[in-house]
Amino acid sequence: MSVILEVDGVTKRFGGLVAVNKVDFAVEEGSILGLIGPNGAGKSTLFNLIGGTIKPDEGRIRLDGKDVTGWPAHRVAREGVGRTFQTTALFEELPVYLNLAIGYRMRTKTNLFDALLRTPRARREQKEITQRVIEVLTFVGLGEYFDRPAGSIPQEAQKRLAIGIALMGRPRLLLLDEPTGGVGPEETGRIIDLIRRVRELGITVCIIEHKMKMVMGLVDRLVVLNFGVKIADGPPQEVCSDPSVIEAYLGECIA
Amino acid sequence: MKWIKEKLNFNLLVGLASLTLAALLPLLLQRTSGGKYNMIVLTYAMIWAVAACSLNLILGFTGQACLAHGALVGIGAYSMAIMVERVGINYWLAFPLTCLLTAFIGFLIGLPSFRTRGPYFAIVTLCFNVIVYATFENWTWLSGGLAGQSFEVPPVLASRTTKYYFVLAFLALTVVVVRQIIKSIVGASFLSILSNESLSEAVGISAFRNKLLSFTVSCFLAGMAGALFATVSGRVDYSITSFLHSFNILVYTLIGGVATIAGPVIGAVGLYYLLDRIKGFGEFRYVGFGVLLILIIIFFPRGLMGGINQLRDWVKEKRSTKVAPQGEVGS
Amino acid sequence: MRLRKLTVVFTLLATIALMMASCGGGEGEGKGVIKVGLTAPLSGVGAKYGQDCQDGLSLAIEDINAKGGITVGGKQYIFELYPADDEAVPDKAKTNAERFVLENDIKFVFCPLATCINTLMDMNTRAGEEFLIMAYTSVPLYAQRSNPYMVTIPPPFSSYIPDFIKFAMGKGWKKVALLQTTGSYGELWGKTFKEAWIKAGGTVVAEAPASYYTETDFTAYIQKALAGGPDVLFVGGPSQPTAQVMKQARGLGFKGGFIVIDQAKMDEIADAIGMDMMEGSVGVLPVEDSQFSATLPFAKKYKERFGRRCTWETAIHYSAFHILARAIEKAGKVDDVKAIREAFNAPGVAELSGDEYPMAFDGINPNTGALFMPATASYVEGGKFVPLESIEWWKK
Amino acid sequence: MSFFINQLIIGIQLGSQYMMMALGLTLIFGILDISHFAHGHIYMVGAYLLYTFSVLAGINYWVALPICMIILALIGVLVERLVYRPLRGSPSINTFIAAIGLLLAIETLVRGIKKDAVRVPVPVDRSVSVLGMSLEVQRIIVILGALLILLMLQWFIKRTRLGIAIEAMAQDREGASLVGINVNRISALTFAIASALAGVAAVLMAPLGAITPEMGNPLILKAFVIVVIGGLGSMKGAIFGGYILGVIEALGVAYISSTYKDVFAFALLIVILAFRPTGLFGERAA
User: Fold this and answer.
1) What is the pLDDT of residues B170-205, one digit of tens each?
2) Are residues A72 and A176 both part of a single domain?
3) Chains contacting C with at least 3 CB pairs below 8 Å?
4) Which residue range forms the structural domain that includes residue A244?
């Protein structure tokens, strides 16, 4: 299997604080990577660096061997990186189907004139969008909410919608920042199930998660961050027995 | 998607009905001289409605508060008058050229301005407007000074009635353009920036490029409003570039209903007409108007159209027992 | 909450309805009514200026109506004034005029701003919708394009320039610094004055025009002007900021004179900063120092009634309105604009005596429609206004 | 050289006035996210209050100063209560519209009451000579007064409980309400302080010029430019921005063009924001 994402010595400082310090790891295509660590360990910052929301001070980020360091977020997204945010980010005022449609925008070529004149291309792509929306809507199981404003649907459905939006553009790599945060145990199961099905589509997944139990059963590999530094990297069981990890987590990991 | 179609058809029906009404109105108004006056006021009001629609595109649908629309309308009006009178370009050629020129100027302003966000963007555009106004006020070679720039309208457009229809046609065109954009995936990208800029970046939409696009189109329409203004008034002077116009356009848009297609039209036509009618109240009318603005914005934060939509939703909620439209996602 | 909203809506609607309802004007009585329009800034920055103009017209109408109005073609007519606010914006002036003509059937429109008059000139010759513009501006708009139905009331601003220059040069002042207001009017004044000054052998040592409408502190400008070591400063815009400029110039140690453009009123400046600081200024003669015997009583009456100082705007509008009334009488028609405009040319119509009216007129140029109103400058010496000889500019 | 220094002093004095206005605005923005566009009109009301007390009622200028400040502070609280509080949480463009409505109403009302421009006498009617050019004492009072006010404000913000709460809220609004800071009280207080600052500016500046209903308009525009140059919500930015703009304006008039002075000032802002999109002292955009 080939490496899809390569993080190579990436460092990010905010003022005097080093949020991410010379972190490197690689993700193999088709695998699920878990990213864990205590609060403020720099996990979300790392996602923002990969996703292009912020630029690293040092180090390189490569996608499929292509150097995407310092690319703006929208270009990284077009390279096939879908992502969700820690605080669930949706287009809250817009209906669910439009949320999804927007996720597919980067795969369409309709320009202003197509839109104004409703050219054949615009019509064709409109159909394409609708089809894809139905596909994803079914895949994430949000059919019943399709015309509701995204902000008004239940918390757990919002989480699935966020994943759905990220899936719309047919990403090869999906970055999920706490996809089950603030969700009850029963619903967590549904989301985990969704993530498994995503992997079955052949999409590589990187996931930040606090619920250790869930992570252990889901991921192929674990990367542990503490104070911006990578302290462990390997198969879940191996990482959990690592003494530095136990120290960072005060034994919570084993539970 | 069936239900959208139903809703659209309803809106379309209302739109067509208002257009027909507006088109028939002159037949009535032409009869009396007082009616003719109302026609003139409505003609001007519709020009500002075009400007308000153009502001709505960038403010309402893309979320960027632009305070330079007075200047843009002014630039459009001047470029029209100068092209026709001094350069000697044919009116019908000058009209699209004016729109393109204003769009291009907007594009140039947008390049540095969209590096900033929110209130910063608003102030940058306001500053641009102040600069344009000061330039036109003092550079009399450009603006024609006290006399302004006179402007010969083609004979076809000489009468009040044809001017009315001419402006009405362009207002209808503007509404259609805005609607076509908003109901398309291009417009959805604009909406996504308004709603959540970082998420739209994360799904591959370049906020900068889309804002710039939206602004350029908005400027194109503002230039059109300017060209219409020059056509209707026959003389352009520096006061048209004032940022007070920017504020007015903003007020029309917000009171009418930001981010709705009909709102800016209703706001501009309604308020312009109202303000003209209450002229007889002397200076103190502006105390009342000021208080009215505050009250409306407090009690109807989404403007008149927003209020109507709210009311409609509320009625719908009361009446219908919700049926989940499962599996009806067909286009 | 919903109830509160509804209440608000209804209150708003009721207010609007009330406003609309009370918009209809009052109807005339048994006598015929001649309606006269005024489009002027009646709100905003120019509100006072517009109010002064309106006061002049109202007083004239009051006086004429009190005497039973005028007799035209054997019928008695009284006047009624329709003031409308244009906020100094030309396109609003334009809609005002449209309303006058179309809704109110008005044939005579007073307008005191050059920019607004310009737009009125575009529309007053339309067949069937003619109206007479009574233009109150010292910019000679008729020189650029003629208008058959326009009467220009005050003298052109340039008629003051020779006197201003003669006075300044007579004092031995050769170096001037330009410090007038920015904007089109100030620029026009500045340019014309500069040319004349240089032609007369003077030099311009500094140019620092300032926006009198937006600045409140002129020190930076004045210092720039003073750095050139001028003998005299060319200032002027609205009265208040002009006073401010002069005061600050004195504060900065300027000892020379001021040449004040006609927009600023010397008496208002004196009210604001006192006569001491104005020593050596030359500008338009104040109302109360007028050479006409009727002016002072008029000004006093005005002040008693309105509690404000009478300005030339009021006095001149008052007088000019009487000329209009005479012309209508002479023409024998109340709605034939062409005949009425021609009646201005008839001997005696456009001639008012300074013993009866606060401003004297000496006829009209039949071609341009410019009334012959003398321009009188005055300078300040020993804490007093000293009038110069009135300039009969039309004779040159 | 003396010409340059004189222009510099004038610039600093202009800047003092700008700074006092900009400080109020930036406090209001930082804490409440409100573009208080009617702030210039509050300043204008302050000048008219001074006229009322010192000319009409004959109260001593220095006694009138605190009275005007207090009354203006109360007006500020009233404005917050009646206009801005009901709008809390709505988009900032809505508060902007409300501000336009407010300034329209205030300006028209004042003009309706008093049409003519008014003046108040200068408390110390003297000029001093600085490097061969004379300077009115009142200008020096403005410069020193502004500095004094600035120091007092700094003391208040850094040393008093309320002040610290204000600063905390300016930096982190949500966090502040979490640790139990009473948001309503703080917003009222902010408006009171900002309006009182405008009051000081008005009282100090009023004797130097005519008092007119529209005197707030150019000032508010400048003050906003400063707040934006400095970075919205940044007090440091408002202070530096105020002095910088004042000095640039004075030197611009002297050495570039007086007619296009505003053009240069506003163009400068656009250039600054093109390179630093959140102002000189604003937090960097992520």
Assistant:
1) 999 999 999 999 989 999 999 999 999 999 999 999
2) yes
3) B, D
4) 1-80+171-255
Q: Tell me the mean pLDDT in the region C275-304.
A: 91
Start and end residues for every CATH 3.40.50.2300 domain found in chain C = 31-157+294-362, 158-288+377-395
- C124 shares contact with chain B (CB less than 8 Å): no
Cβ separation C115–B281 shorter than 8 A? no
pLDDT, one tens digit per residue, over D151-174 is 999 898 888 888 888 877 776 666
Hey, are the CB atoms on B286 and D108 less than 8 Å from each other? yes
**Residue A136 belongs to some domain of the structure:** yes
Contacts of A105 in chain B (CB under 8 A): 185, 188-189, 192, 203-205
- The CATH number assigned to the domain holding D217 equals 1.10.3470
In this predicted structure, what is the pLDDT of residue B320? 61
- CB A110 to CB B201 under 8 A? no
Mark which of A148, A169, A190 sits at the end of a domain: A169
Q: Which CATH class is domain C158-288+377-395?
A: alpha beta
Residues of chain B positioned with their CB less than 8 A from the CB of A169: 203-204
Pairing state between β A81-83 and A173-177: parallel
Q: Which residue of D has its CA nearest to B67?
A: D93
> Is D117 in CB contact (< 8 Å) with chain C?
yes
Q: Are residues A139 and A95 in the same domain?
A: yes
**Residue in chain B nearest D222 by alpha carbon:** B127
D12 contact B CB<8A: no
The arrangement of secondary structure in C31-157+294-362, i.e. its CATH architecture, is 3-Layer(aba) Sandwich (3.40)
Does A85 reside within a domain? no
Residues C105-160 have pLDDT tens digits of 999 999 999 989 999 998 898 888 899 999 999 988 888 888 999 999 999 999 99
- Nearest chain A residue (CA) to B176: A116
A19/A131 same-domain check: no
The amino acid sitting at B60 is G
Q: Do D210 and C224 touch (CB under 8 A)?
A: no
By residue range, what is the domain housing residue D253?
2-121+132-285
| D277/B contact by beta carbon, under 8 A | yes
The first and second tokens of residue A181, run together, are 């945060």
Judge whether A146 is closer than 8 Å to chain B, CB to CB: yes
Strands C175-180 and C150-152: unpaired
Write the residue in B138, B280, B285 that is nearest to C187 by C-beta: B138
The 8-class DSSP code of residue B145 comes to G
pLDDT digits (tens, 9 = 90+) for B53-108: 999 999 999 989 999 999 999 999 999 999 999 999 999 999 999 999 999 999 99
- D221, B284: Cβ pair inside 8 Å? no
Q: What mean pLDDT, rounded, does chain B reach?
A: 88
- What is the CATH topology of the domain spanning B36-285? ABC transporter involved in vitamin B12 uptake, BtuC (1.10.3470)
